[in-house]
Specification:
By secondary structure, the protein is an all-alpha fold. The protein has 12 helices and no strands. The protein has a single domain, classed as Orthogonal Bundle (MetI-like fold), CATH 1.10.3720.10. α5 packs across α7. The relative contact order is 0.12.
Amino acid sequence: MQTDLQLKKDFAIEKKRKSKFVTSFGKYMFIAPGMTFLLVFLIFPIGYNVMITFKDLTAMNLLGEQNFVGFQNYITVLTDKTFSLSLKNSVVFTGLCLVFQFVIGLALALFFNQKFPGRNVMRSLILIAWMIPLVITGTLFKWMFAGEYGIINHLLMWVGVIDDPINWVTNASTSLYITVIANIWIGVPFNMIILLAALQSLPEELYEAAKVDGAGKIRQFFSITLPLLKPTVYILLMLGIIYTFKVFDIILIMTGGGPVHSSTVLPFYAYELAFTDYNFSLGATASTIMLVLLIMVSFVYLWMIRKEEQE
């Protein structure tokens, strides 16, 4: 009798152990596809990219043996004048785009947050700018700012602002800024939609109470709307920095980074090193530096969010 009880007890323990094993194994099976995707398409490429920054990988020795050069690639890139210019252009490009995209997007969001006939149709039309492929957008803006036949020059000459056509694309002092204008046009609808969704989620009771207390529209905006939009603004600016800092298509299509690298930004600089000069190690080094800069921005964002939650 005691033996039977002991056998039943051992059987129950073994069954429970197997059940825990199956449950744990099932959990890992569920996360296996996601982990595999991350390993193959994210961790491995980044790791390989970092690894070749310490070698002299070029088109000449791609299939041969590459020498270990330590931090020489980082020294070469960081002391390159083109890198300094590209970093400056990236900061200017990102800063101008973020400011104008946010301000115009917020203004449009406040406008479309009002109730009036046809607002849904107008909102949909504005979204077209965001849905059009970048190749088409870049080509259109390149034609618009063309020297002899561009519509921008014709309009400016028609109103008497300029007397002769300006070569916006091939002028070193204007090439970067026309790409900024194109990218602002692309990013405004995204900012508008995110901010409009945030505005529509704000409680109406706060505004009704503010009206009762005699607060006007401007006071309501600065005392209620902006403080409540702060988390959304943080996320929007964070995404804006990441998306804008790595812009490549518009630069390639409109100016090709020229003239004389006047519109070259960091992603295009890395592209030229890797696929024009065929120095894959230097291209990977420039990309890694750009990744480190974006990670630093991410840490700043997380610090701001944590500080906001503590307050």
